[in-house]
Structure formats: structure tokens, C-alpha cells
Amino acid sequence: MKFIMNSCQVIFFAVVLLGGILHLSRGRDDVNFDINYNITWGNDHVLSLDQGREVQLSMDIQSGAGFGSKLSYGSGFFHIRIKLPEKDSAGVVTAYYLTSHTNYHDELDFEFLGNREGKPITLQTNVFVDGLGNREQRFLLWFDPTADFHTYEILWNQHHVVFYVDDIPIRIFKNKTNIGVNYPSQPMQIEASLWNGDSWATDGGQTKTNWSHAPFKAHFQGFNVGGCPLDQNSINIHRCYSSNYWWNDRKFWKLDKNQQKAYQQVRQKYMNYDYCSDRSRHPNIPPDCV
Ligand SMILES: *[C@@H]1O[C@H](CO)[C@@H](O)[C@H](O)[C@H]1NC(C)=O
Ligand SMILES: *[C@@H]1O[C@H](CO)[C@@H](O)[C@H](O)[C@H]1NC(C)=O
Ligand SMILES: *[C@@H]1O[C@H](CO)[C@@H](O)[C@H](O)[C@H]1NC(C)=O
């Protein structure tokens, strides 16, 4: 049997491979959980493993659990490694996100929507600015996210927000303040959680959590933080746009040619919902989509 890839696929896999090599060269990211994070809820559903280099959140009918960064940040290249709950995880949501906790909040979301065993887990992303969200884009993944750890990253600088899966850019939210689209500008904390979302998460809420499979367990690694720390109420966020932070460097202002190709490829093949093309929810194309 012959295995033929077209040039887009070759580039896509080359970037995947390069991403893997970059990760290896960065070395093991083995900062202790307690350095940058603390548990925010469900204390008795959190387990520290590998001397604090790994954390397990579990969820049963009593509770889920969550943790958050001690500090807020005004820019950064944030990352975590996650291994999702295995087997039947319908209704179970695993989340990794940045949020400002303000009345009109900014938020950048990765939400993994569990599913019945053998059915694919959906990765939902969302962007809130000044309290306004409704910007869901959903993806299937090109690997089984329950089988092993994978890296999920959010780049946030003055120019764009980029969501990455294993170093593949899957979503970009550009700074389009020049055409009147608001852009995240509030200090945000990093959070992660495991919780029951069976009112909406799987088949629009029709497929419920099967509690006979509890406890559900999600594993997290990679607790060092590449971010510009800032006071929650700081008005001095401009300090975080300084070129002293590597993620503000010109090379992170837009994707290079190969990343751009991988981005297009991944969206073409794996994106299965895009608010930008949902005319029933957004009769006019939202300006941030143009
Ligand atoms: C964890 O961090 C939050 C947010 O900063 C804070 O409110 C809480 O007191 C901290 N908890 C512990 C146990 O340090
Ligand atoms: C958006 O971009 C403009 C320049 O085009 C810049 O002045 C502004 O600080 C950016 N906004 C944010 C919130 O990063
Ligand atoms: C829940 O899981 C149990 C054990 O696997 C199974 O017997 C039962 O049919 C499942 N319930 C639903 C609604 O799928």
C-alpha cells in the first residue's frame, strides 16, 4: 500500500515534528505546582503527584476541582500539558483558560467536552472581551487526548492571541482595535478545572454524565509560567507590552509561512464549528471575523 501525502500535509506534519523537537529541547518543565499555582476549589479532589510536578483533578457527584495561578498576567506565552479523563467522559468538561474575574471580563478558553467511550472529544475555544463572548470555535483532534499528555498554549501579546495544540496554531484572535473590535486588555489569571457540564457540553446537553464511571480524572503537568506578572487592578498593563518579554518580539507578531500553512490545514480538516459562519446566531458577519 502506498502512503501519499500532499504538500500541505507534508508541511503540517513537518511542523508537528518540529514542534516535538522544540519541546524536547526546552527540556522537562518540572517546576513544582506550588510555585505559581494554588488550588481554588474542590481541595479534597486534588492529588499532587511526582513531587508536585503533576496534579490530578477528579470529579464525582459531590464535586469537581480547580486550580489557578497566584498572580495575574498582562501578556505571555502560556502553556500546560493535559491528559484528559479516559473512557466514558460524556458531560465532563476539562478547562484551561485565562480570565480577568472582572464584571466585564476578558477570557481566553480551552474547553474539552467529554464524550461517550469511542466518540471523539471536542475542543472548544472561546474569546471574551469586556464581558462579550459567543465566539466559539470547535475542533476535533488528530490524536487521542486521553491516551497521553499534550501541550495546549495561549500566546497573548499586543498583536494577537493564538491558541496552539502541540505547537500547531489552531486559532488566532487579532488585535483589530483599529476597526473598533475590542481586544483583551485586562490582567488575567490562569485557571484549570474539571467540572460537570452535562447541561450543555455533550450533544448540546442531551448526553448526560454517567456517574457509574466516576471518579473522572484529568492530569496536568508543566507548571512554569511564561507571563508578565501584573497586579489584578493594575492600570499599568503597558509595562507588559515591552520587548524585554520574548513573546512580544516581532517574530511573534504574526505567524510565519509554515505556521500559516499548518494553521489553514488544521482548520480545514479539524474545525467543525465556527461562530464566524453561524448565520443563525450572527446574522451579520462579526467584525472580528473579517
Ligand atoms: C489561592 O489564590 C487565590 C487567588 O489569589 C487566593 O484568593 C487564595 O487565598 C489562595 N489560597 C491559598 C490557599 O493560598
Ligand atoms: C492594539 O493594537 C494597537 C496598535 O495597532 C495598540 O496601540 C494597542 O495597545 C493594542 N491593544 C491592546 C489591548 O493590546
Ligand atoms: C452507565 O454505565 C454503566 C456501566 O458501564 C452501564 O451499565 C449503563 O448502561 C450506563 N448508562 C448509560 C445511560 O449509558
Summarize the structure.
The protein has 3 helices and 16 strands. α1 crosses α3.
Report on the structure:
- The longest helix is centred in the N-terminal third of the chain and has 20 residues, at 7-26.
- Strand 10 (150-156) and strand 11 form a beta hairpin.
- The chain contains 3 helices and 16 strands.
- With 290 residues, it is mainly β.
- The chain has one domain (27-289): Jelly Rolls.
- An 8-stranded antiparallel sheet has the order 1-4-13-6-7-8-9-16. Strands 2, 3, 5, 10, 11, 12, 14 and 15 form an 8-stranded antiparallel sheet that branches.
- The chain starts with 6 loop residues before the first helix and ends in a 16-residue tail after the last strand.
- One 2-acetamido-2-deoxy-beta-D-glucopyranose binds at residues 210, 212-213.
- Here the CATH topology equals Jelly Rolls
Give the rounded overall mean pLDDT: 92
Query: Low-confidence parts lasting 5 or more residues at pLDDT below 50?
Result: 19-27
The overall strand count is: 16
Oligomer designation: single chain
Radius of gyration in whole Å, from Cα?
Answer: 19 Å
- Determine and state the CATH class: Mainly Beta
Helical content (DSSP H or I, runs of 4+): 10-25%
Structural class by sheet pairing and helices: mainly beta
Number of domains: 1
Q: What are the bound molecules?
A: 2-acetamido-2-deoxy-beta-D-glucopyranose
The number of helical elements comes to 3
Strand content: 25-35%
Defining traits:
mainly beta; secreted; EC 2.4.1.207; binds 2-acetamido-2-deoxy-beta-D-glucopyranose; Jelly Rolls; 8-stranded antiparallel β-sheet; 34% strand; single chain; globular; 13% helix; 290 residues
